[in-house]
Amino acid sequence: MRTLYRVSSPMLLLVAYTANAADPLANGIGGDVTTTAGSSWSIEDGVLIPERGDERVYVVTSARYANLEITLEVNPDAATNSGVFTRCQDPETITPDNCYEFNIWDAHPNQEWRTGAIVPFAPPTAMVDTEGKWNAIRIRLEGSRLRVWVNGILTNDVEHDKWAEGHVALQYGGSGGMVKFRNIRIEELP
Fold this sequence. Notes:
6-stranded antiparallel beta sheet, single chain
């Protein structure tokens, strides 16, 4: 079993380390992140993987962030609704109603909210397909300026000031699909 662990600030790096058999951590998650109720995640060879299911579940940071840059790699399949949520107000209730959701879902039924969108505030300005391969995601929040790049392509650059700080969460949207995350970094900005 492998678990998550928090490294030094101001940069947070979610990395895998090998836990021993006596490690009491629930759901394979530890350090300064938690999971939402009913959630089960594991790390295999440095890749964060949710247990396949039909429920929306999240890995959530304990810390709150204002200005930050998140970089990560994600590998979603066609059936998976996923995303990176930032400035979440309640770590136990993650929704687009209390967070900024940077969507990862090429096949969203409403293409305004496909991969690269900030749901429900701004559709993507460029269409980037991500299904079935590793993709680089970069999210930068500085004050009210919100930006996201998918595979180096800027898909959103908007001003929005609903939330100034909050938790960060990674989503597995269920529906029987799969998503994998790796090389996750959160850097606080001045």
